[in-house]
C-alpha cells in the first residue's frame, strides 16, 4: 500500500493502449525469445514467478518496470532525457522510508533516510507504451536505489487514483500529476475503461531439472480482453467496494465462508475489520495485488494449526531461521514438500482453485535442508486495524493471481475515466486441475504419483494453536504494509507484519480465515 506519502516499495510496471486496446504479452524468463507483435503489445518478463516486469520508454530512454495493481504512481531510477521540471515539492514513503524531493531546482533533493528509502524529483516526460504516447506524464525520478529486485528500474502502479501521491501534489483541477491510467482513459474516450491481467507461470520456478507444463503467455491489456479468455466478460461482476478507511484499492468481498479446504468443505470466515462497511461481518475484504509475491491474510494470533505427524512440522523455536529463496524468515510452519494440498476460493458462487505448487515455497533451512513453507502468509492483526493500511483482510498476490484471469473496470476510481459505470472486478479461472496435479507430481514427486497414499488431514477439533509471534519475526524482503499502497519487493518495518507460515489443512487456511 504505498503512495508518495505512503507508497508501496516494489519495482514493477505495465502499460496501456488506445481505441482497440493495448495488450502486453507476459513472457517467461525461461523462454528467451521475442514474439512477433500483433496489434499493440509489449513483452513482459516473468522472473521465476516472483516478479513481472515490462519494458517502456520514458523521455526516449528504455526502462524495465514492475507491474503493480496495489499502487498508482510511476517512478523510475536512472537518467531520463528530455525531462521537464515541475515546480512542486514532494515526499514519498516506501514501507516506512521517506522519499523526499522537489522540482524546479537543479540542486540535489534533500531526503530523510530511514530503512529503505528512495529520494527523487517529480518530473514530466513523454511516455511511450508501444503504440500509445502520453505527453508530459508525471513521474518520480529516483536518484538513489539500493538493491534493485527482479531486474526492475522502477515501478508503474495502476491502482485507484486516490492513492496517487504524485496526483495529490496538484490541484484537483490540474491534470499535471494525473496517473498513467487517468491519462489513458481521459485521452482515449473510445476505450473500454478496464484493464486485464493474466500472469504467466515460469517452468523454471521449481527445482532445477523439473520442467513444468507452460500455461501459455500472460498479458496485460487495456480496453480489451485476451481472445482465449473472452468468457471473462460473462463472469459475475464483483463490485469494487469503497475502502472505509480511505486507502482505496481494487477490493471486493469474498463469498460467505468462501474458502474450500482439501476435504471439499467450506471454512467459516469473519472479517477482522472493526465496524465493517460495504458488506456483512462474515465476509472477508480482499484486494488483488500483482506486486505481492506471497498473498497475505489476517487471522487471530491463536491460529488453528492442523498438526499431524508426517503432515506438518514447525520451526519449533522462535528465532529459527530459514533461507527461503530470497529472504530470511523466522517462526514459520512448514509442509512436507511432497504433500499435495488443494484449496479454492469462492466469489459470486464461482470456485477458483489454486494450483498445489502455488501453495508452498521451497527453500533451505539453516542446516541447508530442503523444506517447504506455506505461501499464504499471515498479516499482523494490528495492521488490519491501521486505517492507513486500508480495510483489508486478504491480499491476493501473485500466488493467487497465477490461477485466474483478472479484469478490473476502473469506474470512477480513476480520475478522468469517461465511463461512469460503477467499478467492478471479474475473474476467470485459468487452472486445469489435471495439469496442476501433474505439475506437482513432476516437481515434487519426481514423476511418480504417490498422492493417493498421503496421510489424511486432521479435522478442526484436532488442531493445535499457534502462539503469538513477535513482530521482529519479519522477513528481510517480504511484503510489508506502509500506508496507502499494497506491494512487496522492499524491506519492511519489523512492526508491520507477523510472519508465520502455516502447514496442514487448517494451518494453511488459518491465515485469518478460520475465525
From TrEMBL:
It comes from the Eukaryota. PROSITE patterns: PEPTIDASE_A1 (PS51767). GO terms for molecular function: aspartic-type endopeptidase activity. The keyword Cell membrane does not apply. Keywords: Membrane, Signal, Transmembrane, Transmembrane helix. Residues 1-21 form the signal peptide. Gene3D superfamilies: Acid Proteases (2.40.70.10). SUPFAM superfamilies: Acid proteases. Pfam families: Asp (PF00026). GO terms for biological process: proteolysis. The keyword Transmembrane helix applies. The chain crosses the membrane at residues 492-514. Residues 52-418 form the Peptidase A1 domain. Belongs to the peptidase A1 family. This is Peptidase A1 domain-containing protein. It comes from Collybiopsis confluens.
Amino acid at each position: 500500500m504505498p503512495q508518495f506519502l505512503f507508497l508501496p516499495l516494489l519495482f514493477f510496471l505495465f502499460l496501456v493502449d488506445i481505441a482497440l486496446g493495448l495488450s502486453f504479452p507476459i513472457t517467461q524468463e525461461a523462454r528467451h525469445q521475442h514474439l512477433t507483435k500483433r496489434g499493440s503489445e509489449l513483452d513482459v518478463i516473468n522472473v521465476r514467478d516472483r516478479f513481472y516486469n515490462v519494458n517502456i520508454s520514458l523521455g526516449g530512454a528504455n526502462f524495465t518496470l514492475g507491474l503493480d495493481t496495489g499502487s498508482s504512481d510511476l517512478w523510475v531510477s536512472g537518467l531520463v532525457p528530455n525531462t521537464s521540471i515541475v515546480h512542486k515539492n514532494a515526499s514519498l514513503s516506501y514501507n516506512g522510508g521517506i522519499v523526499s524531493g522537489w522540482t524546479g531546482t537543479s540542486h540535489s533533493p534533500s531526503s530523510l533516510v530511514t530503512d529503505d528509502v528512495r529520494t527523487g524529483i517529480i518530473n514530466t516526460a513523454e511516455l511511450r507504451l508501444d503504440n500509445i504516447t502520453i505527453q508530459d506524464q508525471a513521474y518520480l525520478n529516483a536518484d538513489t536505489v539500493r538493491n534493485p529486485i527482479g531486474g526492475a528500474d522502477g515501478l508503474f502502479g495502476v491502482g485507484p487514483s486516490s492513492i496517487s501521491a504524485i496526483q495529490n501534489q496538484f490541484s484537483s483541477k490540474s491534470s499535471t500529476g494525473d496517473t498513467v491510467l487517468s491519462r489513458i482513459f481521459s485521452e482515449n474516450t473510445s476505450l473500454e475503461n478496464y484493464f486485464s491481467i493474466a500472469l504467466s507461470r515460469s517452468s523454471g520456478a521449481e527445482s532445477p531439472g523439473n520442467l513444468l507444463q507452460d500455461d501459455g503467455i500472460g498479458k496485460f491489456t487495456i480496453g480489451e480482453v485476451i481472445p482465449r479468455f473472452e468468457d471473462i466478460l460473462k463472469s459475475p461482476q464483483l463490485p469494487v467496494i469503497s475502502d472505509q478507511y480511505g486507502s482505496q484499492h481494487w477490493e471486493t468481498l469474498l463469498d460467505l465462508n468462501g474458502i474450500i479446504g482439501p476435504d471439499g468443505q467450506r471454512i467459516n470466515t469473519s472479517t477482522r475489520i472493526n465496524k465493517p462497511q460495504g458488506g456483512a461481518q462474515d465476509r472477508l475484504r480482499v484486494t488483488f495485488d500483482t506486486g505481492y509475491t506471497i498473498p497475505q491474510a489476517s487471522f487471530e494470533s491463536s491460529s488453528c494449526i492442523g498438526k499431524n505427524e508426517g503432515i506438518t512440522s514447525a520451526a519449533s523455536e522462535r528465532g529459527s531461521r530459514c533461507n527461503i529463496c530470497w529472504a530470511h524468515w523466522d517462526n514459520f510452519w512448514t509442509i512436507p514438500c511432497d504433500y499435495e494440498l488443494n484449496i479454492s476460493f469462492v466469489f459470486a458462487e464461482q470456485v477458483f482453485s489454486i494450483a498445489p505448487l502455488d501453495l508452498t515455497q521451497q527453500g533451505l533451512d539453516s542446516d541447508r535442508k530442503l523444506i517447504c513453507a506455506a505461501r499464504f502468509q499471515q498479516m499482523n492483526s494490528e495492521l488490519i486495524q491501521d486505517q492507513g493500511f486500508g480495510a483489508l483482510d486478504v491480499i491476493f498476490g501473485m500466488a493467487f493471481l497465477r490461477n485466474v484471469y483478472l479484469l478490473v473496470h476502473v469506474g470512477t476510481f480513476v480520475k478522468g475515466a469517461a465511463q461512469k459505470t460503477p467499478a467492478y472486478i471479474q475473474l476467470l479461472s485459468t487452472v486445469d486441475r489435471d495439469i496442476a496435479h501433474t505439475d506437482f507430481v513432476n516437481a515434487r514427486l519426481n514423476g511418480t504419483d504417490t498422492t493417493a497414499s498421503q496421510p489424511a488431514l486432521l479435522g478442526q477439533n484436532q488442531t493445535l494453536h499457534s502462539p503469538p509471534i513477535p513482530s521482529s519475526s519479519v522477513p528481510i524482503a517480504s511484503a510489508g504494509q506502509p500506508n496507502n499502497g499494497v506491494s512487496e519487493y522492499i524491506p519492511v518495518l519489523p512492526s508491520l507484519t507477523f510472519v508465520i507460515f502455516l502447514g496442514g489443512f487448517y494451518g494453511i487456511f488459518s491465515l485469518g480465515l478460520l475465525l
